[in-house]
Amino acid sequence: MAGNSRRRFRRSTASSISIFCAIPVWRGRLRSRPVESLVLEARDLVERGARELVLVAQDTTRYGEDLGYGRHGLLRLVEALLAETEADWIRFLYAYPTTLDESLLRLMASEPRVASYLDMPLQHSDREVLRAMRRGGSADRYRRIFERARELDPEMSLRTTFIVGFPGEDEAAFERLLEFVSEVRFDHLGAFVYSPESDTPSASLPDQVPRWIAEERRARLLDVQRHIALERRGRLVGRTLPMLIEGPCEETEHLLQARHQGLAPEVDGRVLINDVAGDGPLPFALATGRIVDVEITDAFADDSVGRIVGFDAARSTAGLATREAGA
Question: What is the number of domains present in the chain?
Answer without folding.
Answer: 3
